Amino acid sequence: MKKTGIAIAIMGLGFGLMSGGVSAADMVVKLGHVGPLTGSISHLGKDNENGALLAVEEYNAKGVTIGGKKIKFEIMGEDDQADPRAGTTVAQRLVDAEVVGVVGHLNSGTTIPASRIYHQAGIPMISPSATNPKLTQQNYAGVFRTIANDVQQGGAIGKFATGTLGAKNIAIIDDRTAYGQGLADEVEKSAKASGGKIVAREFTNDKATDFMAILTKIKAQNPDVIFFGGMDAQGGPMLRQLKQLGINAKFITGDGACSGEMLKLAGDALSANAYCTQAGLPLDKMPGGKDFKDRYKKRFNLDVQIYAPYAYDAAAAMIEAMKAADSTVPAKYLPALKKINFQGVTGNVAFDDKGDIKEGAITVYQYKDGGWNPVD
Amino acid sequence: METLLQQIVNGLVVGSVYALVALGYTMVYGILGLINFAHGEVVMVGALTALQTLLLLMGIAPDMAPLLKLAIAVLVAMPVCMILGFLMERLAYRKLRNAPRLAPLITAIGMSFLLQTLAMIIWGRNYHTFPQLISTDPMQPIPGVFITPVQVTIVIVSALVMAGLILLVTKTRLGRAMRATAENHRVAALMGVDTNAIIALTFVIGAALAAVAGVMFASNYGIAHYAMGFMPGLKAFTAAVLGGIGNLGGAMLGGIVLGLVEAVGAGYIETMTFGFLNSSYQDIFAFVILGIVLIFRPTGLLGERVSDRA
Amino acid sequence: MNELIEAVPFLGKRNPRLTKWLIIIVALVAPLIAAYFGRSWMRILDFALLYMMLALGLNLVVGFAGLLDLGYIAFYAVGAYTWAFLASPHFGVHMPFWIVLPLGAAFAALAGIILGFPVLRLRGDYLAIVTLGFGEIVRIFMNNLNHPVNITNGPQGINALDSLNLFGWNLSQSLTIGDFKIHYLYLYYYFFLLCVVGSIIFIKRLQISRVGRAWAAMRDDELAAKAIGINTRNMKLLAFALGATFGGVAGGLFGSFQGFVSPESFSLMESIAVLTMVVFGGMGNIAGAVVGALILTALPEILRHIALPVQEAVFGTVILDPEVLRMLLLSLAMILMMLLRPAGLVPAHARYSRPELLKGGA
Fold first, then answer.
1. What is the overall mean pLDDT for chain C?
2. Chains with ≥3 Cβ pairs under 8 A against A?
3. C8 pLDDT more than 80
4. Who contacts C355 (Cβ-Cβ below 8 Å, separation ≥6)?
5. Tell me: the pLDDT tens digits for C132-146?
6. Residue A126, beta-bridge partner list
7. Which of A371, B227, B240, B263 could anchor a disulfide with B26, C-beta 3.0 to 4.6 Å?
8. Which residue of B has its CA nearest to C335?
9. How many other C-beta atoms are found inside a 10 Å radius of the C-beta of residue A313?
10. Given a cut of 50, is residue B153 above it in pLDDT?
11. What percent of chain B has pLDDT over 70?
12. pLDDT tier at B310 (50, 70, 90 boundaries)?
């Protein structure tokens, strides 16, 4: 009997015809995950997928029974290449495969168009890392995120720069991606509101390696703080070039460059002048962080990059909601998901009426002793 | 003033890298009339091979002098790129030498993406940290203007390589054969030049220069990854056209001018356009220059060759 | 159509009439077959039709007129953004499709002429690289024109584009007739199919017209074409403008179908992908563009479903992921096609498109 179940499940995988109603002892329930598994930020995409996978595997190991049946969760991982069009195609593929929920996508740029397809299909989605405020402003009932959005993060950065660091003059750089630009705009707003002056607003792109020209221009404005909205692949070299130009301003980046990769790429250019922010708490300070780190390392033999715990919590939130509603049918467990309230790896997971995480804490980190350390 | 000087220094450094890569484009274009789109990818292969070598060396001989390590890495990267250049010419371009112009061009584009994909398979998609074995601690030759030893090295190495290449092309028998082949394959062949060998050699020399450029580039920025060659490649091609395609001195001049325009342009465009344009348009300069040069002065700054070959 | 018929292996030459009906039937029932495998395949088919339009348009420029355009996707972008400006909440304008589509086509044609004028004197490689630059410039402007005045909304893109509304009939809503529900992806499929068929008929007429013959003459020998009194300047401009028109229409349809446009969708890689479709199918040949677009849109998706399980079964892990496979496929298709079969998968047979002439010396 079990064999038939698996055989049908395999057929379902092959043809995307999975009906969900396998009447075997183990019922297979599929959750989708989408992130870029190819391209320059594929390490982050894989990290997210691993996070969701870990959650599912642990719940499977513990054993979940819903509607009297033992449930075996599976992750159907898709690659959106960080490209909006590929994002909608794979979203459609997940809808076809009748996944009951989606963890993803990673980038705001792909998540926003894909959310429309999930919304039309009535499938809940939780993004572990798309921070663009527009995502939840669309007022789709089934759209959530486990990470604080850019309004919260940008606001915190602006206040931190003008308040804690006492900056008067601030320079802002963004990488002209939906993420980088969105965050930089929020930082600009918040810094201005709290009395800072934006002395330079410069731009680069997400494939650039040379920032000497814009940094030289910024240097002439003599800022106290330079903020960069973008990813670690640019943030690292940028920090090196700041040093090469003898700029001593403090350097802050958002969550996109608040990674272990950033530490490697910036190398010895890192100093106590380097700060970054991360939505939520640091891995070590997350309620379940230390333990998560070990479990993750043990399972994948990799270090956690950035968002894996949020992907873990996103998958966990869905499973918890299904348990609460005693159903894996999207329309039935969605109300439970809206009201979900549990202790996840990253902290307390509960959503406001827009679908944003309620306790979206922002932590500022400073470089110290070879790593990012939270600033109190 | 310091800012302007600093931008000029920035431009010179970037420009030297462009120039080094542009030499490879201009040689191949001069001799075959072909834009070897994949040349930028040879730069990338050079950088990543050197990185691989360095990582290996650090494993087996951690105490070796840094500069010696770098030298060994370059000496490994060069032959690898030379073989790659040779294979590219032999397998992909030679058969199409007399085909219509579109054919080798399309092959070259395909080759560029093929190499990127292969590099992605071999080295993965992540950005890699490239050890900065030449110091990157800034010096101030003029107060307020910063330059690092690695940047000085880049400028000097490009100048030396360039001088060597000009000597090779103008003073040696081999150089004469190359010039003859560029002028006219058939006549050169009738004069006893083995044009196939000469063309292959041109690719090999260009690839060796690309390997050096790749190591320089990676050492300067401290990173290497599979797509690092494409944009610099395009810009280097622009530099070659700007200087006058087929002209070695022109490639050098074009590279430097392009580097300067990009740095100074990114620094001052906002002021010059009253805030309408800004540094986000930095990548446009190369293309605009390319268009303007090709339309109004197809021979470039120094070129003598008529664009009819295009 | 004849070329397409001949392209069908075995049957094509033996029984053209049967083949013709077969092609028509397959085109009509294709979405039903695709739906059997899942709706994502219908979406892929819809995209394949859009790519067909693009490939047909680029084929005009590259295959017919012999002008290698590496920035073709820019016209697609112009069409898509026209739709976004005139039919979305972005500016609060919601014009009907019969205004927006022609306007998008017109703007794209205008962009084609703007590109065409300066590059008239350029040929071959130089033309290729300048058009590549043009494509990048358009993309960079789309990405940055949110400052000082917000026109394109920058990298955030424009969301919630109006869907196609045919005189009150909204194509993005599934049609319900009694108990029978037709999914919106079908509606788009048949509408796109209509557009592709229309394009094919138009291009077919164009190819054997005076203009098509002039292009062929110009492509094969520009000097000789000039000598027999062809105004090569106007012919080149016409090629750019007409080619761009198809890109513009396809772009508008893309915008309405996707509901979201952002500059990321119009990268250089897209231009290259469309060019590969033309090259792969056969330059200068309508059937080639259609077949090339279909195969190169569908094959990577099919590979995704076949190659991954195979790799997992053989190696126990995925060594080449789908995007790598797609890149490998595209780049190898370009290189090998040029080396082994320069005329493409479906070599042109029609009058005035003689690829064997292309083989002459440079």
1. 85
2. B, C
3. no
4. C282, C283, C284, C285, C342, C343, C344, C347, C348
5. 999 999 999 999 988
6. A103, A144
7. B240
8. B107
9. 32
10. yes
11. 97
12. very low
Q: Are A29 and A74 in contact (CB under 8 A)?
A: yes
Q: Which of C343, C340, C303 is nearest to C323 (CA)?
A: C303
What's the pLDDT score for residue A6? 44
Q: Is C207 on the interface with A (CB under 8 A)?
A: no
Query: Quick one: average pLDDT of A313-334?
Result: 94
Q: pLDDT for C236-295, tens place per residue?
A: 999 999 999 999 999 999 999 888 888 988 988 899 999 999 988 888 888 889 999 999
Tell the residue number behind the tokens 């371009």, with chain if given: B93
Which domains are assigned to chain A? Answer: 2-148+286-349 (3.40.50.2300), 151-279 (3.40.50.2300)
Shortest Cα distance, chain A CAs vs residue C24, angstroms? 26
- ∠ CA B224-B229-B235, rounded to 5°: 130
- Return the residue matching tokens 């050890």: B131
Q: Which residues of A touch C160 (CB under 8 A)?
A: 138
Residues B284-307: pLDDT tens digits?
Answer: 888 898 888 888 887 788 866 543
A73: part of which helix (H) or strand (E)?
strand A69-79
d(CA A58, CA A76): 16
DSSP at C162: P
Q: State pLDDT tens for residues C168-198.
A: 777 777 777 777 777 778 888 999 999 999 9
> Looking at domain C2-358, which of 1.10.8, 1.10.260, 1.10.3470, 1.10.287 is its CATH number?
1.10.3470
Confidence of residue A22 (pLDDT cuts 50, 70, 90): very low
Domain B2-309, CATH: 1.10.3470
**Exposure string (b/e) for B7-43, b if CB count within 10 Å is 16 or more?**
bbbbbbbbbbbbbbbbbbbbbbbbbbbbbbbbbbbbb
Q: Which residues from B are below 8 Å from A176, CB to CB?
A: 280
Rounded average pLDDT over A284-295:
88
Contact A79 C264 (CB under 8 A): no
Domain spans of chain C, in order of start: 2-358
Spell out which residues of chain C touch residue A84, defining contact as CB-CB under 8 Å: 157, 258, 260, 262, 264-265
Of residues B2, B132, B279, nearest to A202 (C-beta)? B279
Residue among B140, B265, B280 minimizing CB distance to A176:
B280
pLDDT of residue C360: 40
Strands (E), B132-284: 139-142, 145-147, 223-224
Task: Judge: A244–B138 Cβ closer than 8 Å, yes or no.
Answer: yes
Spell out the domain ranges in chain B.
2-309
Q: How confident is the model at residue C318 (pLDDT cuts 50, 70, 90)?
A: low
Residue B207, SS3? helix
Question: Which of C159, C265, C305 has the CB atom closest to A85's CB atom?
Answer: C265
- The minimum CA-CA distance between B282 and chain A, rounded to whole Å, is 8
Chain centroid to CA A204: how far?
Answer: 22
Q: Report pLDDT digits (tens) over C149-164.
A: 889 988 888 888 888 8
Do the chains contact at B105 and C283, CB–CB below 8 Å?
no
Kindly report, residue by residue over A177-226, the tens digit of the pLDDT: 888 998 999 999 999 999 999 999 999 998 899 999 999 999 999 999 99
Residues 295-314 (C) with a CB less than 8 A from some CB of A: 305, 309
Burial classification of residue C242, based on how many CB atoms lie within 10 Å of its CB (0-12 exposed, 13-18 middle, 19 or more buried)? buried
Three-state DSSP state, C217: helix
Cβ-Cβ contacts under 8 Å for C197 (sequence gap 6 or more): none
Flag if A109 and C157 touch (Cβ within 8 Å).
Answer: yes
